[in-house]
Amino acid sequence: MTTLLVKNIHTLVTMNAAREELRDAAVLIRDHIIERVGKTVDLPASADQVLDLKGRHVVLPGLVNTHHHFYQTLTRAIPAAQNADLFGWLKTLYPIWSRLTAEGVRASAQLCAAELILSGCTTASDHLYIFPNDVTLDEEIRAVRDVGLRFHASRGSMSVGESLGGLPPDSLVESESDILRDSRRVIEAFHDNSRHAMTRITLAPCSPFSVSRDLMRDSAELARSYPGVRLHTHLCETLDEERYTLNRFSMRPVDWMVPSFRETAAMLWRGWPLDAPNEYTTLPFHAACGAVGFQPVAAASLVGSNSTAMS
Fold this sequence. Notes:
This protein is of the alpha/beta class. It has helices at 86-97, 102-118, 137-147, 176-190, 213-224, 239-249, 253-261, 279-282, 296-300; strands at 3-13, 21-30, 33-39, 49-52, 58-59, 63-65, 121-128, 150-157, 199-205, 230-236, 267-271, 290-293.
């Protein structure tokens, strides 16, 4: 077993139940797991490796990033995709993303993982939902492992293309049988449900405008069959999705999704419809454990989207 002692911390933000902030503090880590925190004078004076911060630094728990699309790092600065609403932005980039390769996934994952760690983030969830050419989730998982970020890898999916009334081109969608088969493969190959796991798998049907209710339901059932496998989806980032579900299904996004995810063990919803505050209180009754993630910076970049994440 190896130990690391970080000592002489100016301020240690514990984020424990009492929200203690310790001065002149230390942290003892054994085999990558925090064993003790406290005053420097109260912890062992030596370890296999000692990092003396000399009273100059603040130490706090790592940040957690609940939603990301690593591969989209490769198309951050496409001129035609700037100053667009969500659906216009997606339709501009879908043809470019259709040329994504495993090497592109690897490079973007390593870049994003490094950026996150350098910004203080130690745990991240990424939603990879396109699998053209030779792309698999495996390449992303291995790339992030090399960087050392704790990772919840989402096996995303799109199954409803333009010919069936969806938004993405048919060339970027998969059959639902293939999606479920590969989802099971990825879970069995990479999911680790142990307490200090560095890699866990999440199933993530993409959105109401790119998957069917059947796939939502079947993904939820598959996730429930494996301990610790969570679910993740885009609920409603902008009014584009709300208009889509109202026009196509005569219902709002929450009403469309809830039957598929009823009694789901754990669910992270990305985005929320702004003009239906009653849905903030009704959804918890449909899921045993649910959470909503907002990304105001991403949503603010979508011009004319009436972003739901701004309030």
